[in-house]
Amino acid sequence: MTTDITGTPAPDLKIIETRVYRGPNVWSYDPAIHLVVDLGSLENFPSTAIPGFTEKLLEHLPRLDQHHCSRGRKGGFIERLHEGTWLGHISEHVALQLQHEAGHDMRRGKTRQVKGVPGRYNITYAYADEAVGLAAGELAVRFVNHLVQPDPAFDFTTELEKFIKQAERTAFGPSTQAIVDEAVSRDIPWIRLNKASLVQLGQGVHAKRIRATMTSETGSISVDIASDKDLTTRLLASAGLPVPRSESVRTVDEAVTIANKIGYPVVCKPLDGNHGRGVCLNLQDAAAVREAFPIAAEQSRRGFVIVENFVTGKDYRCLIINGRMEAIAERVPAHVVGDGVHTVAELVDITNADPRRGVGHEKILTRITINNAARELVRSQGFELDDVPPEDVMVKLTLTGNMSTGGISIDRTFEAHPENVEIAEEAARMIGLDIAGIDFICPDITQPVRETGGAICEVNAAPGFRMHTNPTIGEPQYIAKPVVDMLFPPGATSRIPIVAVTGTNGKTTTSRMISHVFKGMGRKVGMTSTDGIVIDERLVIRQDASGPKSARMVLQNPRVDFAVFEVARGGILREGLGYERNDIAVVLNIQPDHLGMRGIDTLEQLADVKAVLVEAVPRTGYAVLNADDPLVRKMRRKCSGQVVWFSMAEPGSEVREYIEGHCRRGGRAVVLERSELGDMIVVKHGRRSMQLAWTHLLPATFGGRAMMNVQNAMAAAAAAFAAGAPLHDIRQGLRTFSTSYYLSPGRLNEIDVDGRTVIVDYCHNAPAMRMLGDFVDRLGESLSASSELGRPSRIGVVATAGDRRDDDIRELGEVAAQHFDVVIAREDARLRGRKAGESAALVAAGVRAAMEKGARCRQVDTVLDELDAIRNALSRSNPGDLVVLCVDQHQSVLAELESVSHLAQAGARSGDEGGDPDFVQPDEETLDD
Predict the structure, then answer these.
(1) With contact defined as beta carbons under 8 Å apart, do 819 and 847 qualify?
(2) Which intervals hold domain ATP-grasp (predicted)?
């Protein structure tokens, strides 16, 4: 790269915006971090223009030489550095490498310049843990700036250590990670439910949960029994299994008495402890018992201490999963081996320097800690910490072989005697644990324990896996497999069908139609929409729920066996889909709405956003696409599965000819066949054509007049057919779905208010208004034909969200003016960045512009408040008129209409009965129902 560079580079790189995509998104099929960065003056300084930049970068992160970059080979990124590349691109690679340093092997990234904005770049890169990914991006930017101009307050080595420790704190433990990795390898979806180790495997009704190695199948009684070591010992003894003699005590004097009764040496341990905490072994006399008792009692939640005879031998952990022995490890206590040169303390430091050792369970081995107990144990072996033990002499630092205290493990899975395996499996059955760790003390696991002596000293619920998955010596055992086999036996289903619906208009109604079809088939449907989350026809959350968080809530619900998601543009841009894939993607249309927001300025860009759903269709899935929309039609190239077309095009048209060819090749489609009797929805599969329903017999279409709902019904039928619904169930679902407020609140609801036909709808953009206007024209003609009062007036209350472009808002008014005699412009309660009255003024301006061109409208008024606008519309209307309300808060609007209707009815009753017209008897059936 050659460029004329003047001036001095300054550390101007900064993050402007940060997003976390938790599913497929416009940048990637997989979860990703998205940073918008500004290079400032560094836009003029590629890597070759900053002296020593590349050398310093590689000095601190030498493994960047493994990055392929666009070259597709190791070292490709280094080539780019030497040729000259911009610092945004470099930050992407640094963020990936920082995650790699923390143990997250992330390799996917992309950097693109923001169109039309010099120096500003979109950086996206993969992450395994959200918090770690974000921290990696922030540290990468700081580090790159530091390389441009050194900051005395910034020490990269220190910052890297802090970053790695943060990653270790948020990472899964080795047991949880092993199970999650096994689930991923089987294409079982998972969701992390908290910041610790609680994880859901599977979706909806098929979901199982794990917390470390405790599963949703683990019985709480079994866990309680395993936590009570005295009860555990008595139960095992009653089954004839070898256990040490033991009793539980609460005082030190009782402990000494029992120890004398049992006979020395003895063991003191907490009744309900874990990880070997508080366990004191090989106590030779009463004085040792008195010293050990408070140590054990401190770790006992209930204050009881177990005193049992000390069983000599090696420490073995037998792992039993679903009643079968899956792994055995010999646990060797933390120790050092003398070399004749270093002291005990120095040998501990050398051992802890092993990169496999970390704090707690963060790595496969735990660092050895020197405490008072360790000092006493070293002293009992004839050494002090400053002494140099002879070569090859083992110095123990703990008595127990727990990994959590610094011990090591040796795999003995295939060496155990069958009788010992049987004893361990019987012990797990007696306690009732699905996953159990049986601790054996015996001289040799290869010999029958009943002959050589030894005993089961403990049964553990939620046993750790790392001694088996990462033994210090021996072959690792893949024990996550039997755990996942137990939760999801071969052939078991882990996913529920997901139908995702997107488009500019019609999403909510289509989603409701699909849900209604499958509810009629007995499915427990979880649906998200702009109105809220519905689980099995019960509204559980009332809010705009068309985003990824709502989708995840449905997938976590244990009742749901079928999911229907309305997916809005905003959620995709903000977080991605929030789930991995959808079995069926439905794209209804691409119309000019929400343009000019979040960098989406053209219909083509909006189509790319909506196409994320199509890209998330697997090979076994379907994309249901509107063949009448050119932008939707192009999405077929992005579908890995099969395409199902739906179209209202006339037979013989270019679109229909294309669909006919698609079906001749075995494809599927839903089309309209027109005749003198009406329009018939027809399902085509290969060369078969199957009549589904007359459009005028579907309640949601208002006798075939509401063409937008004809189209929505066709999309719903195509989606249901692709999802495997029988034709008669689809037909029944569509025939019983109406636009009543119960089934479709706020979407084309028809209400009679004192002789006026009132339509309540959500229409909020010009394309939707064209469809609604066509319906108004058809309905108005029908009302005129049946009216004895002459030509009814059409009054429309119109509004849109304030974050739309001025031209789009004006166009809404222009279209409305073509279909209404009177237009009342109102505003939503949320102004979305505009001043009060501004968006209503734009709607009114559009109406006036259309009126000057000869539009139908003869009057336009502005009433900002929604309810006031509705009252205004009703007050100026007469019986027989058509009033169309484009609403925002449909609940309060319906309450107002109910109130007006009840007042009118009460007034009529009062007049008939000669009562007081000002008195209204409260109606029991209100919107509180």
Answers:
(1) no
(2) 233-488
pLDDT of 578-635, one tens digit each? Answer: 899 999 999 999 998 878 777 788 999 999 999 999 999 999 999 999 999 999 999 9
Lookup: tokens for 809: 């808002």
Q: Are 137 and 18 in contact (CB under 8 A)?
A: yes
| Residues constituting the chain | 929
User: Own/partner pairs for 74-79, CB < 8 Å, 24+ apart?
Assistant: 78/54
Put residue 38 in one of left, alpha, beta given phi > 0 → left and psi -120 to 50 → alpha.
beta
List pLDDT tens digits, range 160-178: 999 998 898 888 888 999 9
Q: Among 670, 469, 516, 521, which residue's Cα sits nearest to residue 588? A: 670
For every residue of 273-312, DSSP letters joined together read --TTTT-EEEE-SHHHHHHHHHHHHHT-TTS-EEEEEPPP
DSSP per-residue codes, 189-202: -EEE-SSSSEEEES
Cβ atoms of residues 465 and 363 within 8 Å: no
Q: How many CA atoms lie within 13 A of 31 on its CB side?
A: 15
Work out whether strand 642-647 and strand 668-675 pair parallel, antiparallel, or are unpaired: parallel
Of 682, 254, 725, which Cα lies nearest the Cα of 515?
A: 725
CA distances, 926 to each of 554, 717, 908 (Å): 30, 34, 19
Walk me through the domains of the chain, giving residue ranges and CATH numbers.
Answer: 14-170 (no CATH), 245-309 (3.30.1490.20), 498-736 (3.40.1190.10), 749-784+791-901 (3.90.190.20)
Structure tokens belonging to residue 908: 């009529």
pLDDT > 50? residue 62: yes
Kindly provide the residue ranges of all beta strands, DSSP E only, lying in 448-515, ordered along the sequence: 455-461, 498-502
Q: Which two tokens stand for residue 475?
A: 């072959």
Q: Is the Cβ–Cβ distance between 548 and 22 less than 8 Å?
A: yes
Q: How far apart are CA 234 and CA 493, in angstroms?
A: 40
d(CA 797, CA 756) in angstroms, rounded, equals: 15
Rounded CA-CA distance 410/332 in Å is 8
User: For residue 604, what is the enclosing H or E element?
Assistant: helix 603-610
Contacts with 200 (C-beta within 8 Å, 6 or more apart), sequence order: 190, 191, 193, 207, 208, 209, 556
CA-based R_g, the chain, Å: 36
Three-state DSSP state, 820: coil
In sequence order, the β-bridge partners of residue 336 are 395
Q: Give the residue among 552, 568, 549 at the shortest CA–CA distance from 501.
A: 568
Collapsed DSSP state (helix, strand, coil) of residue 718:
helix
Q: How far apart are CA 871 and CA 874, in angstroms?
A: 5
Q: Cα–Cα distance between 539 and 512 in angstroms, integer? A: 13
CA pair distance 92, 48, nearest whole angstrom: 17
Note every long-range contact of 697-703, with CB atoms under 8 Å and residues 24 or more positions apart, other chains counting. 697/735, 698/734, 698/735, 698/737, 699/735, 699/736, 699/737, 699/738, 699/739, 700/509, 700/513, 700/734, 700/737, 700/738, 700/739, 700/744, 700/748, 702/739, 702/748, 702/750, 702/775, 702/778, 702/779, 703/782
Per-residue pLDDT of 652-669, as tens digits, reads 999 999 999 999 999 999
User: What single DSSP character describes residue 521?
Assistant: T
- Report d(CA 630, CA 632) in Å as an integer: 5
Do 615 and 624 touch, CB atoms closer than 8 A?
A: no
Dmax (CA) for the chain in angstroms is 115
